[in-house]
Amino acid sequence: MTPDQVIELIQSSIESSTVTAQIDGNHVSVVVVSEHFEGLNAVKKQQCVYAALQETIASGEIHAVHMKTYTPAQWADLNA
Fold first, then answer.
1. Domain 3-74, what fold?
2. Is 36:47 a contact under the CB 8 Å cutoff?
3. Among residues 34, 32, 23, which one has the least CA distance to residue 56?
4. Which of 14, 40, 47, 75 is the least crowded, having the fewest Cβ atoms under 10 Å away?
5. Helix (H/G/I), strand (E/B), else coil: 8
């Protein structure tokens, strides 16, 4: 699995998302920024990302996921 494939999976599942991904073997690190996360707590945001990657996790293609999830406002504050 390539970073581009991970990005495509997440973007196809989470509307209006901007995603960056890094892969080390079968471990994936992602940063996801989306308006879809507005009003969601951290656990709900993570569940959205896990849902997007569910098949690849179940198959063992991805073993572990490290993620950071932000709303656009949170991302803007972080990068101000």
1. GMP Synthetase; Chain A, domain 3 (3.30.300)
2. no
3. 23
4. 47
5. helix
Residue 40, number of CB atoms within 10 A of its CB: 15
Structural domain boundaries in the chain: 3-74
How would you class 62 by CB atoms within 10 Å of its CB: exposed for 0-12, middle for 13-18, buried for 19 or more? buried
3-class DSSP state for residue 4? helix
> How far out from the chain centre does Cα 39 lie?
17
pLDDT above 90 for 53 = yes
Query: Tokens 């999976």 identify what position?
Result: 9
Question: What is the predicted pLDDT for the residue at 15?
Answer: 87
Q: Report pLDDT digits (tens) over 59-79.
A: 999 999 999 999 999 999 998
